[in-house]
């Protein structure tokens, strides 16, 4: 029973990360700029920071379980357009979630 609830939450968190990135207008590279090789973990740091700032409702620099769950519930409700209690592929496709390709380093 627990495993069935973990996977959707992990997926929802990942989808939320991408949504925040697209909402915040964060882009990985500009057309005129030459991409610099970066650590794969460093590529998502800005998006994670933005996400944590959104979750931190009392602005104390930390995320409580209550803040986390409130944010995730709101995101689930936002994605669940049919209000069925489940998210289907159509609802994900119609959401603002944009899966951006991870840029590769130059020369590969």
Q: How would you portray this structure in words?
A:
It is a single chain. The protein is an all-alpha fold and 108 residues long. The protein has 4 helices and no strands. It has one domain. The chain is 50% helix and 0% strand. The chain is flat and about 45 Å long. The relative contact order is 0.20. The longest helix is centred in the first third of the chain and has 22 residues, at 2-23. Mean pLDDT is 74; it is low at 102-108.
Would you spell out the secondary-structure blueprint of this structure?
Elements: H1 2-23, H2 45-55, H3 65-79, H4 89-94
Helix pairs in contact: 1-2
Short structural description:
The protein is mostly helical. Helices cover 50% and strands 0% of the residues. The relative contact order is 0.20.
Structural class: mainly alpha
The helix count comes to 4
Q: Per the principal axes of the C-alpha atoms, what is the gross shape?
A: flat
Biggest sheet architecture: none
Which labels suit this protein?
single chain, mainly alpha, flat
């Amino acid at each position: 029973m627990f495993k069935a609830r973990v996977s959707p939450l992990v997926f929802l968190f990942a989808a939320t990360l991408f949504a925040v990135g697209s909402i915040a207008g964060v882009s990985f590279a500009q057309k005129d700029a030459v991409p610099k090789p970066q650590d794969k973990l460093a590529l998502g740091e800005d998006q994670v920071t933005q996400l944590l700032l959104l979750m931190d409702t009392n602005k104390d620099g930390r995320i409580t379980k209550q803040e986390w769950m409130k944010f995730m519930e709101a995101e689930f409700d936002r994605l669940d357009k049919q209000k069925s209690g489940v998210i289907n592929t159509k609802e994900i496709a119609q959401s603002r979630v944009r899966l951006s390709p991870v840029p590769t380093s130059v020369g590969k």
